[in-house]
Amino acid sequence: MKSKKLLLFILAPYLFFAQTNIKADYVMINTFTKKLDKKEMMKEHPKMAEKYFDNAIELLMNNNDKKAVFQLKIRDSISSFLLQPKNENESGINIAYIISKVAGNYFTNLNTGEIINDKEFKGSAFLVTYTKQDVIWNITNEQKKIGNYECYKANTTYNDVFKDAKIESRPIEAWFCPSIPIKAGPYQFSGLPGLVIIVTDNKTFTTYLQNLELNPKDTEVEKVSEKGKKVTISEYLKYESKNL
């Protein structure tokens, strides 16, 4: 009898959150803070016009105050992660919003780990699918408090295509909160034993949790579009690299 009570106590947070609907806002900002070596950059990306290099760096440095806002909704173990409309009063270029719009929206089955990225590329719609094997996490013992959340650090990589049409891996650093045992997070970065509070792409762009609501009244999760062509992430990257 005691063992049953102990088990119930241990599992209580998980049982609670498993039945909890969630709505959360995430903010993506450009955190570019350092000068890149021009020669090294030209070597890595030979098709980049050198005359645009300084302008690009200046634009990044001056865009740190611009942001893109996403909303994460979870209901019955299904989540949607959607880019919210841009602030109409905002003037000038918003790099964070432009990149976020290109990235598209994400829909995740938290039970199976399958993720669908609804996005467009050169006017064509795609439903890019990820499985658990496409996002492999390395959970570390490093921990710190972020706001009110006690978090642990985890690392992974993801593949992307650059203007020289090469598929390259980028390092990802995430901090998740085990006391919120929901395997969700921004973009395709879910599957950790706790809600992802902050995720950083190679120290250049950062997406962080701004606010979190448990069991809000309007937690209907948006549905995936049926218009796109369904492809695996591997198939999509090969297609993009051939059509840049």
Provide a quick synopsis of the model:
This protein has 244 residues and is an alpha+beta fold. It has helices at residues 2-18, 38-44, 53-61, 95-103, 233-242, and strands at residues 22-30, 67-75, 78-83, 105-109, 115-121, 124-130, 138-146, 149-161, 167-177, 195-201, 205-214, 229-232. A twelve-stranded mixed beta sheet has the order 7-8-9-10-11-1-2-3-4-5-6-12.
What count of helical segments does DSSP give? 5
Biggest sheet features: 12 strands, mixed
Poorly predicted sequence stretches spanning 5 or more consecutive residues: 1-17
Query: What characteristic shape results from the CA principal axes?
Result: globular
Cross-sheet strand order for the largest sheet = 7-8-9-10-11-1-2-3-4-5-6-12
Percent of residues in beta strands = 35-45%
Encode the helix/strand succession as letters.
Answer: HEHHEEHEEEEEEEEEH
Radius of gyration, in angstroms, nearest whole number: 19 Å
Mean pLDDT equals: 80
Oligomeric state of the chains present here? single chain
Number of domains: 1
Find the structural class using helix and strand composition.
Answer: alpha+beta
Number of strands: 12
The CATH class, by name, is Mainly Beta
